[in-house]
Amino acid sequence: MRIVFMGTPEFAVPSLEAILAAGHTVELVVTQPDRPKGRKKTLTPPPVKEAALLRGLPIAQPEKLRGSGTVQQIADLQPDLIVTAAYGQILPKAVLDVPRLGCINVHGSLLPRYRGGAPIQRAIINGETMTGVTIMYMAEGLDTGDMISAVQVPIDEDDTSGTLFAKLTEAGAKLLGETLPAIEAGTAGRTAQNHEEATYAPNLTRDDERIDWTRPARSVYNQVRGLSPMAGGFTIWNGEPFKVWGCRVVKRGSGTAQPGTVTAVADEGIVVQTGEEALLLTLIQPAGKKAMPASEWLKGARLEAGTRFGGDEA
C-alpha cells in the first residue's frame, strides 16, 4: 500500500517502522514542528521526524494541519491509507476523505475508555490494572471511530508512564503489523464503540501535577508514577516547588499528624502523612537542583519531622 503516516512522539516510531517492515511505501510523514526543549530551549525535532530523516522519507510539519498546504499535499498523493499514532492534532474531513481504504489510528487504550491525548498517564493515575492498544478507523469525533483490533496490556504495580509507554509502543506496532494485511485485503472487521461507556483522558495540566496530601497514599503514589518520568508530581517547600519523582506507600506515619506533615526522616527517604497511610519519598527534586535520591539530599538539607509540605507558591 501507499501510506501517509502521521505521528509525533517516541510512541509512534515503532508503528512507522512496522509499516516499512511490512513492505509498504510511506509517501509522506506528517509530524509536529520542532519545539524548544530543555533549559537552553534548544530547537529539537520530534522523534518521528528523526526516524523519518534516517530513512530518507519526505516530511511535512504544519503548525496546524487544518487549512495548511499539507492537506492539499496529501490529497495530491492519493494514498491508499493514512495511519496515525499520537499525531497530536485532529484530522479534518478533507484529510479523512482522501484515502480509498480510510484513515486508521493506533490508540494507547482499550476504547471506548480513555479517549483523548493522555490515555497512558491517566490510566496509571486512576489506578487501573489493565489497559491496551486499539486500532480504529478514524471519524470526525475524538477517538470515536469503529474499532478494528485491540490487544490488552497489564499495568504492573510499579509501572510508570515511561515503562507503560514502552510496553504499549511495542504492543501497538505489533498489532498494527498484524492488522494491515486485513485492511489491504478489505476484510478488516468494524466494531462500533459503545459511546455510553466512553471515558476521557484530556492532556495533562500543571494542576494535575500538584500533590493533594489529603488524598490516600495510594492515590498520590499513582499520581506520581503516572506523571513520571515526563513531569513528576510537585508540592511546596519553603515557598518553592518541590518535585516528587519516586515514592512508595508505607504503613507507618502518624494517625494524628495533618496530611502533608513529615513524620520521619529515614535513611531511605522522607515519610509524609497523607489522608490515609503515609508515603516514603525516595526520588525528589528541590527547586533549582537536579533530581536526586531523597537520601542524598537529606545529608545536607535541614528537614525535620513536623515540617509541612503544601501551601501556595511564593
UniProtKB/TrEMBL annotation:
EC number: 2.1.2.9
Keyword Protein biosynthesis among record annotations: yes
Binding-site residues, (6S)-5,6,7,8-tetrahydrofolate: S109, L110, L111, P112
Record-linked Gene3D superfamilies: 3.40.50.12230
GO CC entries: cytosol
Domain Formyl transferase N-terminal, chain residue ranges per copy: 1-179
Enzyme class per UniProt: transferase
Reactions mediated catalytically: L-methionyl-tRNA(fMet) + (6R)-10-formyltetrahydrofolate = N-formyl-L-methionyl-tRNA(fMet) + (6S)-5,6,7,8-tetrahydrofolate + H(+)
Boundaries of every Formyl transferase C-terminal domain copy: 204-301
Keyword Transferase assigned: yes
InterPro entries: Fmt, Formyl_trans_C, Formyl_transf_N, Formyl_transf_N_sf, Formyl_transferase-like_C_sf, GART_AS, Met-tRNA-FMT_C, Met-tRNA-FMT_N
Annotated GO MF terms: methionyl-tRNA formyltransferase activity
Keywords: Protein biosynthesis, Transferase
SUPFAM superfamilies listed in its UniProt record: FMT C-terminal domain-like (SSF50486), Formyltransferase (SSF53328)
Function summary: Attaches a formyl group to the free amino group of methionyl-tRNA(fMet). The formyl group appears to play a dual role in the initiator identity of N-formylmethionyl-tRNA by promoting its recognition by IF2 and preventing the misappropriation of this tRNA by the elongation apparatus.
NCBIfam families: fmt (TIGR00460)
Family stated for the protein in its record: Belongs to the Fmt family.
Name the record gives this protein: Methionyl-tRNA formyltransferase
